[in-house]
Amino acid sequence: MSAVRAVERSSASPWQVAADYLSLTKPTIVGLLVATALAAMVAAAHGRPPLLAAVAVVVGGGLAAGGAHAINCWYDRDIDLRMSRTRRRPVPDGRIPARHALAMGIVMNAVAFVVLWAWANLLAASLALAATLIYVFVYTIWLKRSTPQNIVIGGAAGAIPPLVGWAAVTGGLDLTAWSLFLVIFLWTPPHFWALAQLIARDYRQADVPMMPVVTSASSTKRQSVGYAVATAAVSLVPYLTGDAGRLYLGGAVLLGVGLVALSVLDLRGRRWTVPLFAYSIAYLAALFTILAAGSLLT
Fold first, then answer.
1. Number of H helices, E strands in the chain
2. Among residues 123, 126, 106, 125, which one has the least CA distance to residue 115?
3. 3-state secondary structure of 25
4. In sequence order, what E strands does 197-263 have?
5. Tell me, what's the pLDDT at 5?
6. How far separated are the first and last CA of the chain, in Å rounded?
7. Which candidate, 44, 75, 69, 71, places its Cα nearest to that of 57?
8. Class of CATH domain 15-297
9. DSSP string, 114-172
10. How far apart are CA 260 and CA 65, in angstroms?
């Protein structure tokens, strides 16, 4: 660490330090993941889920996801330093020691496992831990730097929270639960590849083989269309299994049409990539909100 960075770190206020440590958890992403788990809980309970289990999912799920992100920040500090989007993160910028990020992530996941086991059940706790292990070992350490399919396979980690929520209520997993997993799993490529197209130069500079870096933008866009169609189709399963009603069906159809339409429009050029990326975030949030609302209102 440079002398300038050392002085900056020593003069940072407690609030700045706390904000840096919080940023390691990527709280915006954690919020979306926890929201999908809670929506799945509401659907599984066909109404209000048990309060203690809901608290366990919010606290335990948030700690597990945040801890996984902290470990990711520890491992990826070298490539983060080479990307303009990430070089000012606390670890590559020298504001937080790398070992602190690693320790923080491990402790958070240990606490998350205990919380979910004690207040929900062992299956929910094990699924949350599995999500962290996939994200850290499969995506971050193995796939991210070795294959353009990194986000496709590694995206399974981000798709597990609905399983955690479902298991916390029912103690098991069924077709509806797995369909919610597949929605996020299939949604991840068009969502993340839209971002990757926008920052392809960063990934190229860091030697990270994201799809738009190793193949053409048009090829990436065509694959995104396929995943968008699959996402829209799988999103109908909760209605077909009887775990969601007509409100959800209508919302899923409209949202799915929007996702597919924007991914098709993105084939026409880069000007549609930003709208696709923004809509993909809104799509997931809205779909799971409607899923929960439908269960609460019926």
1. 17, 0
2. 125
3. coil
4. none
5. 55
6. 58
7. 44
8. mainly alpha
9. HHHHHHT-HHHHHHHHHHHHIIIIIIIIIITTT-TTHHHHHTHHHH-HHHHHHHHHHSS
10. 29
Query: What is the predicted pLDDT for the residue at 4?
Result: 46
Three-state secondary structure string covering 81-111: HCCCCCCCCCCCCCCCCHHHHHHHHHHHHHH
Which tokens hold the place of 186? 């299939």
178: its two tokens: 């797995």
- The single-letter code of the amino acid at 63 is L
How do the pLDDT tens digits run along the chain, 298 residues long? Answer: 454 454 455 567 899 999 999 999 999 999 999 999 999 999 999 999 999 999 999 999 999 999 999 999 999 999 999 999 999 999 999 999 999 999 999 999 999 999 999 999 999 999 999 999 999 999 999 999 999 999 999 999 999 999 999 999 999 999 999 999 999 999 999 999 999 999 999 999 999 999 999 999 999 999 999 999 999 999 999 999 999 999 999 999 999 999 999 999 999 988 999 999 999 999 999 999 999 999 998 7
Residue 36 is which amino acid? T
Q: What's this model's pTM, rounded to 2 decimal places?
A: 0.94
Return all residues near 11 (Cβ < 8 A) that are at least 6 apart: none
Instruction: Encode burial over 56-83: b for 16+ CB neighbours within 10 A, e otherwise.
Output: bbbbbbbbbbbbbbbbbbbbbbebbbeb
Residue 50: phi and psi, rounded to 5, are: -55, 135
**Residue 173 vs residues 68, 128, 166: alpha-carbon distances, Å:** 23, 14, 7
Degrees to nearest 5, angle at CA 161 with 40 and 121: 85
Answer yes or no: are the C-beta atoms of 97 and 109 closer than 8 Å. Answer: no
- Decide: helix, strand or coil at residue 241: coil
Domain ranges of the chain: 15-297
